[in-house]
Design brief:
15 strands
C-alpha cells in the first residue's frame, strides 16, 4: 500500500459505527471561523451561483476542495440540515451563523454522493465531521464541488474578514487545510 492509500484510509477510517471520519483537531478562538475543508480559497464573486456570489447568504468565501470531507468550522449547534445532505447551517457559541454549502446545483443530485453525520440541534465541537461528499460523482453529474462558507448574519456584525493565507498557493490562491483560520468576525 502506497502513501496516498495510507492517507486516504486514515482520513476515511471509521470514527464510529456510522462510518464517520475521525474528527479533526485544531485550536479555536471565539472570533474565528476555520476552514471546514482542505482546498484553494476563492472569493464569493468567483462562485458560479448568482445567489451565493451576490452575497445573498452573507459574507464569506468559497473553497475548491481537494478532499471530500466537511468538518465543523467552530464549536456550536447545528441549526439547519437538508435532506439532500449538501448544506449545513450552524450557530456558533458567540451567535455567529454559518452556512456551509457543498457544490453548485448539487441539490439536483437528491442526496446521492453525500453522507451527513449530524442532525439539526446537535451540539458539535470544532473539527466534528459533518458531511462526506463524492467529488468524482459530483463531477460526473456535471456540477462543481466548490464549498461555500457564508456568515448569514454578517449584516448584524461589525465586520467579516477573509484571513485565509498560506505559504502555498494554487493558481495564485491560498491553500488552506481543515482548521486553518478562514474568516475573522468582529461583533
Amino acid at each position: 500500500m502506497g502513501l496516498i492509500d495510507t492517507i486516504k484510509r486514515s482520513l476515511f477510517s471509521s470514527g464510529d459505527e456510522a462510518g464517520a471520519p475521525k474528527p479533526a483537531v485544531f485550536h479555536v478562538d471565539d472570533d474565528m471561523v476555520y476552514a471546514p475543508v482542505t482546498g484553494a480559497v476563492v472569493s464569493l464573486g468567483e462562485v458560479h451561483d448568482e445567489a451565493i456570489s451576490s452575497g445573498f447568504f452573507g459574507e464569506g468565501c468559497g473553497i475548491l476542495p481537494s478532499v471530500g470531507i466537511v468538518y465543523a468550522p467552530a464549536t456550536g449547534r447545528i441549526s439547519v440540515t437538508a435532506v439532500t445532505n449538501h448544506v449545513i447551517g450552524m450557530t456558533l457559541l458567540g451567535g455567529v451563523e454559518v452556512l456551509i454549502h457543498v457544490g453548485i446545483d448539487t441539490v439536483r443530485m437528491e442526496g446521492k454522493g453525500f453522507t451527513r453525520f449530524v442532525e439539526a440541534n446537535d451540539e458539535v465541537a470544532a473539527g466534528t465531521p459533518l458531511i462526506v461528499f463524492d467529488r468524482d460523482r459530483i463531477a460526473a453529474a456535471g456540477y462543481e464541488d466548490v464549498v461555500t462558507v457564508a456568515i448569514t448574519n454578517s449584516d448584524s456584525l461589525r465586520s467579516v474578514k477573509n484571513v485565509s493565507s498560506s505559504g502555498t498557493l494554487i493558481g495564485g490562491r491560498p491553500l488552506v487545510k481543515v482548521g486553518d483560520p478562514l474568516l475573522q468576525v468582529e461583533r
